[in-house]
Design a protein that fits this description.
Nuclear Transport Factor 2, Chain: A; 13-stranded antiparallel sheet; 36 strands; 9-stranded antiparallel sheet; Beta-galactosidase, Chain A, domain 5; mainly beta; 3 domains; Cu_amine_oxidase_N2
């Protein structure tokens, strides 16, 4: 069987351009490939031409319109996919998932459709949620149009506060071309179903503006599809609440309001910037290149479309616009060990004294974290030797958008042997030394969800171990410092509070070990105290098995409260969260509790393991300018457990074996290697380059 090893960390890890993937008809992996730009355009054109849908362009116009929000691959049903992959059955029908905002009707709502067959769609059908749950219009994700209207409404509403803001910060909203204020929005957008009231944190628009709150937070009600009916309903300034803009402005005009005056930001070496400042005490050089990853004899992996092969490993992958990386048909030496392994959700719960901080409960699938996969920098985000792949998304746009170098694949020296042994003769010599270099293949992408950057990795090891890992970096979500706020975090700069928060990341692991019929077992170990069988009167204390393992499930709570939950697999339970949970956490269309409340047997069934990893982050001064990756990573391992007859990495030709030929003199050694003695140069010939843009295609 395969063992699922979990990693849960508090402050440390406890474990612990080319074109994008293309559909190659000759390769079975292509049934899981992301939609091509041509397919995305075909789906959009087909839906836009349907008169009964009455769709308008995404950009411009009113909010109360029917518009296409998202198009991405709808994976085939597992039964159809396995029939094709295992038994030579028909290729599954290729379909798209389309999300439509129906705002121009009597009862506005959000509807999902399956559109196909691709590449030439000719029909569509509804994609209902489990239990037929509907998605109300107010639960829809935010769009660029709504953000533009939100900014306009905020600028207009805060006009009476311009004198206050200019005096306190030196920045403003009105007629602004430089020295401007901006905002970050908080979610959930209210305290109960039906609300769309968002707290906005006002910030100075400088580099790293997330760390420059102005001391003002504004609650703006924008549920009505008509922006003319939007209104500011509450304000918070430097620890005090105000019922209206007028009340705050009049308090300032009377001189009754203590101002929180912010210092002038420097032109260079701003604390929130990456510009070097200071020197290390050792004096060792940092202005020269450090160690690099190289491939002296070329790549040892194969990348064909969306199929990745490395040693015994083979898998298909895609990058969902909604939730990110998804692996399919994961095999080792030709035998499937997992049908699907995918990121489901990333959650961050905050505490604080200000209303924005105490309201913040981010659920990043609602911010389309898969489509936040911006360009990876060669030599920084991935080694220079990496293979880079583009991604194409159709999200809140009127056509597909190309995200260059959104994914990368590279072989990584782990810096520690996969295994090794020095066999001493205990007389100053040895019988042999043997070791196998540590290597892993990494599939990586990132999600930059406003302030935070998540680095998503799947690592493949030659001994049949697969690791899923995520690093958190980027800017902390910070609020304006008040003395009362220190209960909820740390003062990380003069006017800045780093708010305490918990990161939770949820994965789906559809294991298929020697077929789809699996069981879930836990093994409990206890110590036994027994009589020593070879010494009368003596006792032996040793670990022993605690009896037959039994299936165990915890009470039905939300997915974020489980380290591990195991359920029967169902086609109508494809994900544990959705893009609507962020704006409707009170009654979301996908509720994880329903997955486990049915009390189904999990013996010899097609099972899914739902894995949650996470850590508590208490921000500190060293999180300035950004949270660093060391100590802020979590993940889990899939490990073979009596699945192979021996460590499968014995098939590698990379070990070194050293045997003495003339002990005890040890003057002659027999060194065995199966790789060339001289690997060749390790310098990448191309200079650093970066574009950073994503453009319609």
């Amino acid at each position: 069987m395969w063992q699922l090893g979990l990693a849960w960390a508090l402050a440390l890890l406890v474990t612990a351009g080319s074109s994008g993937p293309s559909a190659e008809p000759a390769d079975p992996a292509s049934i899981f490939a992301d939609l091509s730009p041509a397919e995305l355009r075909a789906v959009r054109a087909f839906l836009m031409e349907r008169p009964e849908l009455g769709l308008s362009p995404s950009r411009g116009g009113p909010l109360a319109k029917n518009s296409l929000f998202l198009v991405e691959l709808l994976p085939p049903p597992k039964r159809s996919a396995l029939r094709f992959l295992e038994h030579g059955g028909a290729r599954p029908r290729r379909e798209a998932r389309a999300v439509i905002f129906f705002g121009a009707q009597a009862e506005p709502n959000v509807t999902e459709l399956a559109v196909g067959p691709l590449p030439r769609p000719s029909s569509y059908r509804p994609l209902p949620f489990k239990g037929g749950r509907a998605v109300p219009f107010w639960a829809r994700p935010m769009t660029r149009l709504e953000y533009e209207l939100l900014h306009e409404a905020l600028v207009t509403a805060l006009a009476p506060l311009e004198p206050l803001l200019r005096e306190a910060t030196g920045f403003g909203f009105q007629n602004c071309s430089e020295r401007c204020l901006t905002f970050s929005d908080i979610a959930p957008r209210g305290l109960g179903p039906g609300e769309r009231r968002t707290w906005l944190v006002i910030q100075r628009f400088v580099e790293g503006f997330f760390l420059h709150p102005a001391g003002l937070e504004v609650l703006l009600d924008h549920r009505d599809p008509d922006p003319r009916r939007w209104a500011v309903v509450r304000l918070w300034y430097d620890g005090r609440y105000f019922g209206s803009v007028r009340e705050l402005a009049e308090s300032h005009a009377r001189g009754a309001l203590p101002l929180a005056r912010l210092p002038e930001p420097p032109a260079r070496q701003l604390f929130s910037s990456y510009e070097p400042r200071g020197r290390f005490s050792s004096g060792t050089p940092t202005d020269v290149h450090g160690a690099k990853v190289c491939e002296p004899q070329g790549r040892r992996y194969r990348l064909r479309g969306n199929r990745l092969e490395y040693g015994g490993w083979s898998l298909a992958f895609r990058l969902r616009s909604s939730a990110g990386l998804q692996l399919f048909d994961v095999r080792f030496d030709g035998e499937r060990v997992a049908y699907e392994l995918s990121v489901q959700e990333a959650i961050a719960f905050y505490g604080g004294h200000s209303p924005a901080a105490m309201q913040t409960k981010y659920m990043d699938a609602g911010w389309a974290m898969g489509a936040s996969s911006y360009e990876l920098a060669r030599g920084v985000d991935c080694p220079e030797t990496a293979a880079f792949l583009d991604a194409h998304h159709l999200l809140d746009a009127d056509g597909p958008v190309r995200f260059p170098r959104a994914l990368c694949v590279f072989e990584l020296p782990t810096g520690v042997p996969l295994r090794r042994h020095f066999d001493s003769d205990f007389q100053g010599g040895f019988h042999f030394y043997a070791g196998l270099e540590g290597r892993a293949l990494v599939l990586r992408t990132t999600s930059t969800v406003y302030n935070y950057d998540y680095i998503w990795d799947f690592l493949l090891y030659p001994n049949g171990v697969l690791e899923a890992k995520v690093h958190a970096t980027g800017y902390i979500h910070a609020t304006f410092y008040t003395p009362q706020g220190r209960r909820y975090g740390s003062r990380v700069h003069s006017h800045l509070l780093g708010n305490i928060h918990t990161h939770l990341v949820h994965y789906k692991v559809d294991l298929d070990v020697a077929g789809s019929g699996n069981s879930f077992e836990t093994m409990d170990i206890r110590f036994e105290n027994i009589s020593n069988p070879w010494s009368a009167g003596a006792r032996v204390v040793q670990p022993g098995g605690a009896g037959s393992p039994a299936p165990r499930l915890t009470p039905p709570l939300t997915c974020g409260r489980y380290h591990l939950a195991v359920t029967r697999r169902h086609e109508n339970e494809p994900s544990s969260s959705s893009i609507y949970t962020q704006n409707n956490p009170w009654d979301p269309p996908v509720t994880f509790e329903s997955f486990i409340r049915d009390n189904e047997t999990i013996e010899d069934q097609d099972l899914v393991a739902w894995v949650t990893v996470g850590f508590l982050h208490v921000p500190h001064a060293e999180d300035i300018p950004n949270t660093a990756t060391p100590g802020n990573a979590v993940g889990f391992f899939l490990r073979p457990f009596n699945f192979f007859s021996e460590d499968p990495s014995v098939a590698s030709r990379a070990p070194v074996i050293v045997r003495p030929l003339d002990p005890p003199a040890f003057s002659r050694l027999h060194i065995q290697r199966w790789t060339p003695a001289s690997p060749g140069p390790c310098v990448h010939p191309e200079p650093f380059s970066y574009n950073g843009t994503s453009r319609p295609v």
